[in-house]
Please model this.
Amino acid sequence: MGNICRSPVAAEVARTEFARAGAAMTIASAATESYHIGDAADARAIASAKAQGYDLTGHRARQVAADDFARFDAILAMDRTNLRALAMRCPREHASRLALFLPFAGLGTPEEVPDPYYGNAEDFERVIELALRAARGLLTRCGMAHNAA
Model:
């Protein structure tokens, strides 16, 4: 939604896990709303990611751009609210690229990544846990092994 909590964490976890598996993949995150453009990731997201070995310090929030729909093979939303917002902006010819992140990665439940913004440290840790499971699911879906370390 604002590109300061869930999606930057998911993008960095996926980017790191794909790199560890030797996979070259362009992974980015973006907001559906404009209220945090240019901001760093939420300090709690940065801290929880750092504790797990992921670096969010270089992240700056951006809003999804019109060319993102053609540029990326998949546009994966953290929840249904953001999926609807993306669908409203997406050109029809690229609509098949839209999906929820967790089911696309092969996770049956939960289907949505919960927003930790109004939560506590455990909520941010849950986002990392789900992002890691999803990244590993994506690696499997792409036919690549992952480093379980």
In short: The chain has one domain: 6-141. The longest helix spans residues 121-141. The two ends are 31 Å apart (CA to CA).
